[in-house]
Write a sequence for this structure.
């Protein structure tokens, strides 16, 4: 029969496990602070999570990032009558195009070519046609559809080497399919290297995930 000393190995094993767990916890990195801010922009909610900065340190950066997006919206929104894009629609051409709006137009041309025309920023003419049809309560006629089709495609707008752009008669540009992704690319460039990570979530349709979250290895997003 086992003697009274037989219980000591079990006690020692529990002691070793406790010491091992304490060592693991002591060596595990502490969770880094995460600071979140979200605001309405470009027709949806832009949420920005910064890792490694508390609220006081992060607030000036938040203001800078959201201001950048607001400025892009003032340039590229077809819904804002005061935007640079709306001015282009009224005037038909400009020789003094903001570099960011020009870059958006250049990217839209590149994506139209790469997609064989599936992506087309000149879809704005179709958007206006169907919005008007909904307001009237009837489908567009065949003639209206033919006329709209003539205002879209590769010839709808042309960029010149001097930095200007001209629209074909009746053409309308809609950058809604590219503006959010472009905005996130701009924000990514403005993030300081001192951050341990960041998550840029634009309307749960466009994301930039940088580094790691404060309490784990993987960012979790809702799709």
């Amino acid at each position: 029969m086992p003697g009274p000393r037989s219980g000591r190995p079990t006690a020692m094993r529990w002691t070793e496990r406790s010491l091992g767990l304490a060592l693991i916890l002591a060596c595990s990195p502490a969770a880094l602070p995460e600071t979140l801010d979200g605001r309405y922009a470009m027709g949806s909610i832009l949420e920005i999570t910064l890792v490694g900065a508390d609220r006081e340190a992060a607030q000036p950066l938040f203001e800078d990032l959201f201001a950048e997006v607001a400025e892009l919206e003032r340039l590229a929104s077809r819904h804002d009558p005061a935007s640079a894009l709306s001015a282009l629609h009224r005037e038909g051409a400009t020789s003094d195009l903001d570099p960011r709006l020009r870059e958006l137009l250049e990217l839209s041309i590149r994506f139209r070519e790469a997609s064989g025309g599936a992506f087309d920023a000149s879809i704005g003419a179709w958007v206006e046609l169907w919005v008007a049809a909904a307001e009237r309560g009837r489908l567009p006629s065949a003639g209206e559809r033919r006329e709209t089709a003539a205002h879209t495609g590769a010839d709808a707008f042309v960029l010149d080497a001097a930095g200007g752009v001209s629209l074909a008669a009746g053409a309308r540009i809609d950058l809604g399919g590219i503006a959010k992704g472009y905005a996130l690319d701009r924000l990514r460039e403005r993030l300081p290297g001192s951050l341990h990570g960041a998550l840029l979530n634009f309307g749960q349709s466009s994301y930039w995930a940088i580094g790691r979250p404060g309490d784990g290895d993987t960012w979790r997003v809702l799709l």
Q: What stands out?
A: The longest strand covers residues 34-41.
